[in-house]
Sequence to fold (68 residues):
Amino acid sequence: MNTLIFTMRKSLQDLDAGLAGSLNITEDMEVLSTSLFINQPPALWVKYAYFSLKDLLIWFEDLMARIA
Fold:
């Protein structure tokens, strides 16, 4: 679970920096932003998460419940 949370935090920080212009936008950042836009858990996160067919909002709520 810690690897998943670390990966989520790092990828979102990188995306934020890329959108702010501090970093160059990479292909991984584009995939992340597209996944967020279409409300699907990004493949990078799913790689470290449990299997689920839920959309991003429900998936994230379930993740928060599992952490709590």
Q: What stands out?
A: The helical segments are 2-20, 27-37, 43-46, 56-67. The first helix runs from residue 2 to 20. The mean pLDDT is 93.
